[in-house]
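re: ur question from earlier - yeah i can do the single chain one, its not a big deal. heres the input i used so u can compare w yours
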Amino acid sequence: MEDKKEPIKIIIPLNPVTKKNSQRVISNGRQVIVLPSKAYATYEKACYPYLIGCRLGISEPVNIQAIYYRQTRHIVDLCNLHEALCDVLVKYGVVADDNSRIIASMDGSRVCYDKEFPRTEITITTLKE
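and the output i got, formated as tokens:
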């Protein structure tokens, strides 16, 4: 009988943000650099204490289900939230990379509203090859 790994559950108790809204463009005269928004940069740094203990370096195919509980009912693109989350998970070593061979799917993800307790509930499940 095959050992089935238990899903990994992580909660980031912060209002989820995207990288794409309000990007900053900086020019030094010769080149133009596009930086993520200040809100994203702040969010990325604030995620550190919630992910530092999860440095798993996952390199096998997984599904990441992310339930984003936002503080407002403003419409947001789910794919932009996914991009921000995946980049944070890579930055803090939860997954080795966010390519499709590792993050093979993001099934079951959705955006919800919770004014009092905004957060991202993440469930990482190993997929059979």
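The chain has a mean pLDDT of 90. not sure if urs matches, ping me
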